Amino acid sequence: PTDNKVRIVEVSPRDGLQNEKSLVPTDIKCELIDRLRETGVKNIEVTSFVSPKWVPQMSDAGAIMSHVRGFQSGSEDRGIEYSVLAPNQKGLDAALASGVKEIAIFGSASEGFSKQNINCTIDESLQRFRGMCEKALKQGVRVRGYISNMCACPIDGLVDPKSVVRMTKEMLEMGCYEVSVADTTGVATPDQVHRTLSAILDAGVPANKLAAHFHDTYGTAVPNVLVALSLGIRTFDSSVSGLGGCPYAKGAKGNVATEDVLYLLHGMGWETGIDLQKMSEIGTWVSEKLGRENGSRAGKAIASM
Ligand code: HMG
Ligand code: MG
Asked: ipTM of the predicted structure?
């Protein structure tokens, strides 16, 4: 049966690393991708073609993509899809030139964060994304959409689900194959997540067009995964060892840890195709390399056995 399958999008090389204070050497990023390729994961978000002034950590996007291109063709890609973030036409052009097959556009359901993250209003962003989708799709490149601040914004406070619904519909209309709805700062509680996701589904968006992207600041990310799962969502974004953080929200933590999500899902009988043991070893390795504490509870438990 296909109804016990869950798809994991491993976002650690991008979301996990983009806020690391000191520049992570390109070699380490490439090794992280190489190691992730051995786990069975089928979707890896590898880098961003954003302004190096805004996010210096991602300024080696071209080098990361040339590494990925090395195994992207032929059987070496192992059926793995590699995606990159692009904020505007300039980023899209650079991404296309680097040979990407999938890009992700990213907007915010709140105005304050839209301004702070991509320096434009929600309406301006949607207009920009429309042009980007047109160009990417024409070249056979898939587009994924992200919506930040699904429940609350670090600048504007609580977010009206209507704004998330509107953006989801527009992003799908312009040709995104999927929209990943994000709790950017990891503040949402399960009832809030339920309300926002239900609003999107009630507006007629099929659950298989949605992904959920939870950050884990207050310990609600795993419960939030369960809520999304109960509503029919089968794609989750996560980072090995819970890497990451948000520059615009003090104390905000990384993505929900892939190991924690895998432990939950596998224990409940869901299949991800990913080897939890191998993923945990990567969590231990990358935490050591970056000199930070392993942010995965499951990963730490497995490492101590
Ligand atoms: P801007 O300053 O308004 O851009 O930034 P601009 O068009 O006025 O250009 C200013 C300068 O940047 C120019 O260079 C451009 O060429 C250059 P100058 O003439 O001054 O030398 N530039 C670029 N360079 C490289 N690549 C580009 C690019 N675009 C312009 N693509 C911009 C607007 C969108 C570029 C900027 O705000 C930006 O890069 N923002 C990205 C911020 C970011 O990466 N945030 C993190 C990712 S989103 C996220 O983490 C949320 C997510 O995980 C989901 C969730 O958890 O919520 C996805
Ligand atoms: Mg994120």
From this structure: 0.98
Instruction: Let me know if 153 is a catalytic residue.
Output: no
Residue with the smallest CA separation from ligand 1 atom 10 is: 51
Q: Is the pLDDT of residue 212 over 90?
A: yes
Q: What is the dihedral of CA 150, 142, 77, 181, to 10 degrees?
A: 10
- pLDDT at residue 164, rounded to an integer: 98
Cβ atoms 244, 151 nearer than 8 A? no
Tell me if residue 28 falls in helix, strand or coil. Answer: helix
The CA–CA distances, whole Å, from 183 to 171, 203, 220 equal 18, 20, 10
pLDDT of 248 reads 65
Helices (H), 203-257: 221-230
The label of the residue with tokens 């948000």 reads 246
| First-last CA distance in the chain | 33
Q: Give how far the C-alpha of residue 273 lies from the chain's centroid of Cα atoms, to the nearest Å.
A: 18
Q: Is the model's pLDDT at 2 over the cut of 90?
A: no
Q: How far is CA 90 from CA 48, 109, 132, 139, 240, in A?
A: 12, 23, 10, 16, 30
The predicted structure's pLDDT at residue 72: 80
Distance of CA 18 to the CA centre of its chain: 12
Q: CB of 184 closer than 6 A to ligand 1? A: yes
CA dist 102 and 165 (Å) reads 23
